[in-house]
Amino acid sequence: MPSILVFGHKNPDNDAISAAIGYAYLKNELAKKNGEDVTYEAVRLGGLPPETEWILSENGIETPRLIEGVGEGDKVILVDHSEALQSAEGLENAEIVEIIDHHRLGGLTTAQPLRYNAMPVGSTCAIVAREFGIEGIEMPKAIAAVLLGAMLTDTVIMKSPTTTNFDRDIIAKTAEFVGVDPVEYGMSIFKCRSNPAELPVDKIVNADAKEFELSNGNKVYIGQFETVDLQAVLGREAEIREAIKALVAEKGYQFVLFFATDILAEGSQFICEGDTEFVNKVFGIDVTGKSVWMPGVLSRKKQVAAPILAA
Amino acid sequence: MPSILVFGHKNPDNDAISAAIGYAYLKNELAKKNGEDVTYEAVRLGGLPPETEWILSENGIETPRLIEGVGEGDKVILVDHSEALQSAEGLENAEIVEIIDHHRLGGLTTAQPLRYNAMPVGSTCAIVAREFGIEGIEMPKAIAAVLLGAMLTDTVIMKSPTTTNFDRDIIAKTAEFVGVDPVEYGMSIFKCRSNPAELPVDKIVNADAKEFELSNGNKVYIGQFETVDLQAVLGREAEIREAIKALVAEKGYQFVLFFATDILAEGSQFICEGDTEFVNKVFGIDVTGKSVWMPGVLSRKKQVAAPILAA
């Protein structure tokens, strides 16, 4: 039976993995209902975040298979991304049959029409949950718990400015169905992230990092680390700075911007290497050689990547 | 009150105009329902096709305003296209807030997330009609008739290979609601297209034509003319050939491919100027200096543009 691969971006975060699991489940149920001879397999392009490991094990859901890339003729569904730079190696040889996403439009082209379902909302998992309703497919409790977890991590428990009324509604409904309080459930998920004092520095820098291409053709790398213990991260600023300086040198990035987000204090500390002047100009700050606290900045997409890409 | 412009592609066909009208209506109703202080205006980037003129007048619907282009800070919704080449002048300065489409992904980028709703189905109007159902907005009969008309022209009365079961279902439901037989209604629409023996040649060549960019960066122009009187079109082959030769010279296209589709005989006659070798190779034909009958070819998107763009 032909199999279609469903995956989120490189350096997957909880939303990328959970959306792939939820959407592959939905598509398999729809295929059964419509008598279509095809299966959908959730896979992943990188390591499992610690909170995802915990949620999957709590709900008895198998970890998606790790793939190295995709090949000629593979049919794929992209979730939680729509930029070639953030996707599987070999994507140009595969056939993209669907995209389900909540990010900006990333410049991909296809030869054939496809299903593209993007919404400017807080998480891809919220869009996946909406599709269950539209298609009239029953959601098992375990899948609901996985989707809810990612709706909460991606919106930083509804504190991120990316959170819409649509997110709040679907989080409330899904939490009621799962039988948990959304804020308590969100806090328990964030707490199972590893202690930043003990993590290898590359796990901090690359925990949730993405490449972007500026309009001048140069690439930049923007990494975010969400934590309930900002001081533990900042205690390692020198190490982090060395690591991102090395990335600039190795990969030729115009700059690497790393920011540690304190989800309780609701702000982020910026650390930047490379063309820091660019970043200074975009945000009206001075991040050259020192780190800068940015109150209220919680969302990479809306508050960090968007102004950089629009500059 | 801020106004958002809703428009289809240049050289608009019936689907491009009708989808803009239907979607602007839906968005205005949704804004009223949600108490949002915004209006949506259907506009157009070119002349009205004769069948659209007839349908709008039959249903008492105002002709969308013609615009020359869009400007800095305009908010826009693209319907029935997603390629900059086919869109409004100045699009790079506007903010695309939504795209609703049934074509391939055309390489646009945005700085901000957006609503993108594409499906690989026969018409954009079918997707617009589906949205009325999902959003629970009542569809007036006049809007239903306009949407139905475009579902029928864009699928060549359900004969085009782009027609899916989804299209057949929504056409049947909408026709029942309007109170017409879909095939009879479709034929009456096609019959009000002008007599190709009497049309100025540029109206034939540009009736439904779009620019595409090949992977080598060259541009091509692919025009389709659907008719119930193929012989009248072919009687003007020499004139058509001169017109498309002039387009190749003026615009620097790698080639211009014009094809006249006989909706009764279900096939198309290809006429090509410029790099005809490219087209010969893609289709395994010899269209150099002569026209070629292609039985079964009804869809530009699926049967003409897709193989050219994939080559």
UniProtKB/TrEMBL annotation, chains A, B:
EC number: 3.6.1.1
Enzyme class label: hydrolase
Entry cofactors: Mn(2+)
InterPro entries assigned: DDH_dom, DHH_sf, DHHA2, DHHA2_dom_sf
Every DHHA2 domain range: 186-309
Stretches of the chain forming a coiled coil according to its record: none
GO cellular component entries: cytoplasm
SMART domains: DHHA2
One GO MF term attached to the UniProt entry: metal ion binding
Keyword terms of this UniProt record: Hydrolase, Manganese, Metal-binding
Reactions the enzyme catalyzes: diphosphate + H2O = 2 phosphate + H(+)
Protein name: inorganic diphosphatase
Organism: Slackia isoflavoniconvertens
